[in-house]
């Protein structure tokens, strides 16, 4: 495979050291030439020390962000941009054509998919419209008339990283958190085995892999302990969801519960690399190589790769970089 001079950029790289290391390993393992550039608002982002070059950019909310990112891409001769946080997905999807004018690909799903994923009410409506089991969301009228059963789950309509997600056990908690959490959404609480599922697709929607990861433990909304599982019922359910998604591209991370009845209930769509993706990669699902193939304009054959290992467990812990290079 000839992949000479393939340069990629991770935006909002932050703490995503494990992911960037996996990409660096893929470059070395497959003899790919090129560089891995990271971007963030801080020179002290840990990921700054994992790639080949780190660049500072404005905040995603800054009107200069898109122009600054484009200039960085031109300066570093970037071929593929890989966004890593929810808050920039819709913005960059809206400017995809601008980057493509300069032969820069964005590993991004359609603006429609990013919009429905960023708004939990739209996610709920999408699941319902496509006959996909999802927790019921209660209307203001149903809440006023107490047409629900405790416990409930409440979360921000446009939240991410599990921020503000709260289990509600009584009316006092409901009254408080409904006002405390911005754009609060009240829904049925579901339980069972919780899965995060990594799906890889090319720019034409062909699926390369579906890797379910059972979430054993989470911290700050991100999986800290997990294990790969080849659960065919989960994989089939995920295929149904993916086939209904509008314009999925790259890594799509779905969250679902497998309830004691065996029913699969979906709760979230995240159209980006999830925090636990290193587990899927370590298990043998070569997301970095597949991503680099897309950066070269290749397509997937349509045959799914199931050669990854089952029952591989990830136990995450904190690590650190030590440097005298920073001047803060």
From TrEMBL:
<keyword id="KW-0436">Ligase</keyword>
<keyword id="KW-0547">Nucleotide-binding</keyword>
<dbReference type="GO" id="GO:0016874">
    <property type="term" value="F:ligase activity"/>
</dbReference>
<protein>
    <submittedName>
        <fullName>Carbamoyl phosphate synthase</fullName>
    </submittedName>
</protein>
<dbReference type="GO" id="GO:0046872">
    <property type="term" value="F:metal ion binding"/>
</dbReference>
<dbReference type="InterPro" id="IPR013815">
    <property type="entry name" value="ATP_grasp_subdomain_1"/>
</dbReference>
<dbReference type="Pfam" id="PF21360">
    <property type="entry name" value="PylC-like_N"/>
</dbReference>
<dbReference type="InterPro" id="IPR052032">
    <property type="entry name" value="ATP-dep_AA_Ligase"/>
</dbReference>
<dbReference type="InterPro" id="IPR003806">
    <property type="entry name" value="ATP-grasp_PylC-type"/>
</dbReference>
<dbReference type="GO" id="GO:0005524">
    <property type="term" value="F:ATP binding"/>
</dbReference>
<dbReference type="InterPro" id="IPR011761">
    <property type="entry name" value="ATP-grasp"/>
</dbReference>
<keyword id="KW-0067">ATP-binding</keyword>
<feature type="domain" description="ATP-grasp">
    <location>
        <begin position="124"/>
        <end position="298"/>
    </location>
</feature>
<dbReference type="Pfam" id="PF02655">
    <property type="entry name" value="ATP-grasp_3"/>
</dbReference>
<dbReference type="InterPro" id="IPR048764">
    <property type="entry name" value="PylC_N"/>
</dbReference>
């Amino acid at each position: 495979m000839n992949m000479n001079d393939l340069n990629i950029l991770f935006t909002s790289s932050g703490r995503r050291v494990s992911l960037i290391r996996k990409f660096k390993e893929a470059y070395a393992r497959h003899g790919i030439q090129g560089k891995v550039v990271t971007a963030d608002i801080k020179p002290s982002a840990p990921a700054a020390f994992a790639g080949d070059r780190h660049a500072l950019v404005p905040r995603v909310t800054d009107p200069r962000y898109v122009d600054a990112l484009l200039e960085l891409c031109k300066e570093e001769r970037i071929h593929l941009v890989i966004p890593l946080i929810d808050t920039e997905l819709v913005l960059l999807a809206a400017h995809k054509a601008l980057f493509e004018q300069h032969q820069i690909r964005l590993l991004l799903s359609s603006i429609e998919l990013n919009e429905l994923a960023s708004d939990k009410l739209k996610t709920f409506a999408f699941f319902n419209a496509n006959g996909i089991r999802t927790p019921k969301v209660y209307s203001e009228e149903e809440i006023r008339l107490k047409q629900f059963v405790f416990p409930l789950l409440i979360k921000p309509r446009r939240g991410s990283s599990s921020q503000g997600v709260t289990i509600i056990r009584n009316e006092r908690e409901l009254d408080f958190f409904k006002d405390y959490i911005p754009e609060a959404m009240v829904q049925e609480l579901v339980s069972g085995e919780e899965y995060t599922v990594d799906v890889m697709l090319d720019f034409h929607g062909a699926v390369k892999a579906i890797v379910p990861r059972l979430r054993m433990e989470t911290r700050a909304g991100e999986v800290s302990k997990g294990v790969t599982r080849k659960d065919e019922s989960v994989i089939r359910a995920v295929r149904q969801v993916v086939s209904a998604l509008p314009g999925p591209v790259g890594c799509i991370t779905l969250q679902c519960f497998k309830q004691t009845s065996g029913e699969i209930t979906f709760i979230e769509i995240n159209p980006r690399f999830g925090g636990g993706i290193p587990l899927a990669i370590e298990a043998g699902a070569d997301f970095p190589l597949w991503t680099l193939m897309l950066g070269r304009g290749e397509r997937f054959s349509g045959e799914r790769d199931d050669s990854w290992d089952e029952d591989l467990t990830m136990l995450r812990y904190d690590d650190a970089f030590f440097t005298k290079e920073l001047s803060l």
